[in-house]
Write a structure and sequence with these properties.
The structure holds 2 protein chains of 2 kinds. Chain A is mainly alpha-helical. Helix content of chain A is about 75%, strand content about 0%. Chain A is built from 13 helices and no strands. Classes of the chains: A mainly alpha, B mainly alpha.
Chain lengths: ~280, ~290
């Protein structure tokens, strides 16, 4: 049996081994050493995609938290219908990002979609506007879509944190005369640090790896402004077939992600030590 | 006395109305896109290009959209079959390997056990998007690029860290006494595992299966990269072709129908096995 478990470890090890082994594949068979890496730092387009990904990650993470936190508080207490609400809010999480993107690209379409005609009907806009043609509106559409898709997930994670807070503590604070806001600020937030950190890590890493929504919804967006890092790697590796350069970019992405994860885990630890 | 009670009753009533008002509003926002798409997918061809106001078919239910979808690629049944083969294959392989591995990690001692386990968990941190390039090359060397089997193997590998973790916890929760009793009664290794322990870890297997199924069914990036011939496309990859349109015209009816085809199985599986899904999520969150 031990042999069997060793046997299954192989594919995983294989993957790890490949990820370590990537850079000798640079170029076709030609060895250009660190050429790809130096090219990376002078590649303006790559730096642009990095900037865009960072921008997107920041905005979407804030948006998700702004929606998911109130929702988590909303569905925390046992009341009639509450589990139905939880389930419904969670539904978009189980469908794929690709399906969700397809659904929303239709909703946002200028002629046959829902939003532009609806806004026009409600008198919010004069005439129909093409949501996906301009950077700002397209960006906003994608953010709303991602929030719709992911908020339920973050909500459930935050919910587990909220429910882990002993009710005695809240009771005690209430008796001591702490108001609703005070209780939230000085009791709930500090006690939820671990959960929040976890939700934050998941949200940040997920956003950095975003690909489906940009590929399907805007195909890189107006003036190629909406190309995320993974999209750029995809373009380099499988459209231009610069496999070596793509691999080098992947390594860069990997380093960024692992650094971020370690950094966040470290912050989490620091949080633990303080009572 | 009466007035105070009345005031309180009115206050709780008002609270309830606000609460459920907010609840219904939120639920509407989260549910509406699904409902609109489902309804719109049953509109006849003549309506499918116009905005979904109202979303339901106003001149009779029709399956035009689904027929249009069928005209793409190698027919919708073929692509559903592809998706299903990959998903079910992923589930079976993942369960088989993770049960054996989970059992091994839970019950046997062998050198470097902890190191190995940490290594498996650590792979969770490595995003597969960044290892796709070498994966692509290796699969090509093995002659498995553009094949559903290759894609399945990739999915299984991606699914394993989480699954092994789940199954080890499931086996850890089974009391040793049961195993020892079965051993005294004469059950040996594999028989012991299948006959005695498997029923006990069924909930863990359910959790692993749901996650494997949903992830394999929905995955898009790897499928897009690894599959190159039309006949092998899974549903998400097919849908990008539909969304790209033909001769510059996009058949939105087909897009709606495709989304419906992709989404309904997920929702169905989730609603059916919600309990196990949430358990897996909690386990992941606590870790």
């Amino acid at each position: 049996m031990a042999l069997v478990s060793l046997f299954f470890v192989l594919p995983v090890l294989f993957t790890v081994w490949m990820s370590l082994h990537k850079w000798p594949l640079l170029g076709a068979p030609a060895w250009i050493g660190l050429g790809n890496y130096t090219r990376m730092f002078t590649d303006a387009r790559f730096l642009n995609t990095l900037g865009f990904t960072a921008h997107y990650t920041l905005v979407v993470t804030i948006a998700i938290f702004a929606v998911a936190f109130p929702l988590a508080i909303f569905v925390e207490k046992q009341r009639p219908l509450v589990s139905a609400y939880r389930t419904i809010i969670f539904l978009p999480v189980v469908v794929g990002l690709a399906s969700a993107s397809l659904l929303w690209v239709w909703l946002a379409n200028v002629d046959s979609g829902l939003f532009s005609p609806l806004f026009q009907m409600l008198g919010l806009t004069s005439g129909r506007i093409n949501l996906l043609a301009k950077f700002d509106t397209a960006f906003l559409t994608i953010i709303v879509m991602v929030v719709w898709k992911i908020a339920g997930f973050t909500m459930i994670i935050l919910l587990t944190g909220l429910q882990a807070i002993p009710t005695e503590l809240t009771e005690a604070a209430r008796i001591d005369g702490a108001g609703r806001w005070q209780r939230f600020r000085h009791l709930t937030l500090p006690l939820m640090r671990r959960t929040m950190a976890l939700a934050l890590i998941l949200s940040v890493t997920g956003s950095i790896l975003a690909f489906d929504q940009f590929y399907i919804m805007t195909s890189g967006g107006p003036q190629n402004k909406m190309i995320s890092v993974v999209y750029y790697i995809f373009n380099q590796s499988f459209v231009s077939f610069n496999l070596g350069y793509g691999a080098a970019l992947s390594i860069a992405l990997l380093v960024i992600l692992v650094t971020l994860s370690v950094l966040q885990l470290w912050l989490l630890k620091v949080g633990d030590e303080r009572p | 006395m009466r007035t105070r009670r009345e005031i309180r009753a009115r206050k709780t009533l008002r609270d309830k109305i606000t609460y459920h008002g907010i609840g219904l509003g939120t639920a509407f926002f989260f549910l509406a896109p699904f409902v609109v798409t489902l309804l719109a997918s049953f509109r006849p061809n003549s309506e499918s290009g116009s905005p979904p106001l109202p979303p339901w078919p106003s001149s009779g239910v029709s399956f035009d959209a689904y027929r249009a979808l069928d005209a793409f690629g190698a027919g919708i049944w073929q692509h559903m079959f592809n998706s299903l083969v990959v998903s079910v294959g992923t589930v079976i392989l993942t369960v088989a390997v993770s049960v054996l591995a989970g059992y091994g990690f839970s019950r046997y001692r062998f050198p470097f056990k902890n190191v190995l386990f940490v290594l498996i968990i650590a792979t969770l941190m490595i995003p597969f998007q960044s290892i796709l390039t070498p994966l692509f090359i290796i699969l090509a060397r093995l002659g498995l690029n553009n094949s559903l089997v290759g894609l399945m193997l990739v999915y299984v590998t991606l699914q394993l860290p989480f699954s092994v973790f789940m199954m080890r916890n499931a086996f850890d929760a089974v009391p040793k006494e049961i195993e020892e009793a079965a051993r005294i009664d004469g059950a040996r290794d594999l028989k012991l595992l299948v006959r005695v322990l498997l029923p006990l870890v069924m909930p863990g297997i359910a959790t692993v299966s749901i996650f494997a199924f949903l992830n394999a069914w929905n995955e898009f990036f790897a499928a897009l990269v690894l599959l190159s011939s039309n006949d092998n496309y899974t549903l998400p990859v097919l849908m990008t072709a539909v969304r790209a349109g033909r001769l510059g015209a996009i058949n939105w009816g087909a897009v709606q129908a495709g989304v419906a085809v992709m989404v309904v199985p997920c929702l169905f599986v989730f609603l059916l096995l919600q309990r196990y899904y949430m358990r897996g999520l909690m386990a992941g969150a606590v870790k």
